[in-house]
Design the sequence.
């Protein structure tokens, strides 16, 4: 469904953030992109959704294909209409609008009014805590409720591919577990592909089919999620400590091989 082909991304014609990134998301699959702060994960999502164009960034090399069509030359409104919806990092609700109005905004591309109303109830079924708050201003919601709302708003577009940026950020562990179970349900029941960017490797790899690890603008490791989840080097990288307590980057882990790939 989605193919990112050796892309490079530069901001303001000066700052290079991505360096030859390649990855893919299959139809109906959950794929996770892992990495520390500043690795280039969010930039990768913005390159896919077209949001780079709003931040003086551009794909300067390589290409991005979605459903067989090259999309990196299009703006975010066109890419959204093609079937890609992004829930951005930081729980960016429209604070002056109610919960229900935020959900209607998510469906702005759609013409089927009866289907939109039906899908609002579907979102409330996935996220019961926000149903009783449907008329409340979204700026007054808790962090967990806002996260549920932004995922629900992305779902209202009925996308073929949903991009989720750090859905666990700042949330309590029990709430993270709840939200990830809902993401898994959405994927299974709606047959929707999900590309998930996270620092929380345990949560992301717990529901993903396949994963990539990014560092300093490059993909340094990839493989089936269960292989990455059980790999000692990945765990060491995310703990940030070696056995003797010294800081390490992934490139310093002894078993590191660039673009190591496990076969299923």
Sequence:
């Amino acid at each position: 469904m989605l193919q990112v082909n050796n892309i490079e991304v530069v901001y303001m014609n000066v700052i290079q953030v991505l360096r030859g990134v390649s990855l893919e998301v299959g139809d109906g699959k959950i794929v996770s992109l892992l990495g520390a702060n500043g690795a280039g994960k969010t930039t990768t999502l913005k390159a896919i959704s077209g949001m780079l164009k709003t931040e003086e960034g551009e794909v300067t090399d390589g290409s991005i294909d979605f459903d067989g069509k090259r999309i990196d030359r299009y703006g975010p409104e066109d890419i959204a209409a093609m079937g890609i919806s992004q829930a951005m990092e930081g729980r960016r609700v429209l604070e002056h609008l109610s919960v229900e109005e935020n959900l209607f905004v998510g469906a702005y591309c759609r013409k089927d009014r009866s289907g939109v109303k039906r899908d609002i109830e579907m979102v409330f079924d996935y996220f019961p805590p926000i149903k009783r708050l449907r008329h409340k201003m979204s700026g007054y919601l808790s962090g967990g409720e806002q996260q549920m709302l932004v995922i629900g708003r992305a779902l209202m577009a009925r996308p073929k591919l949903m991009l989720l940026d750090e859905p666990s950020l700042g949330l309590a562990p029990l709430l993270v577990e709840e939200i990830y179970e809902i993401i898994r349900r959405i994927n299974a029941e709606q047959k929707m592909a999900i590309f998930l960017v996270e620092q929380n490797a345990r949560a992301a790899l717990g529901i993903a089919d396949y994963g990539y690890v990014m560092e300093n603008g490059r993909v340094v490791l990839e493989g089936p999620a269960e292989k990455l989840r059980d790999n000692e080097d990945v765990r060491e990288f995310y703990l940030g400590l070696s056995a003797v307590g010294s800081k390490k980057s992934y490139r310093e882990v002894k078993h590191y091989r660039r673009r190591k790939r496990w076969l299923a």
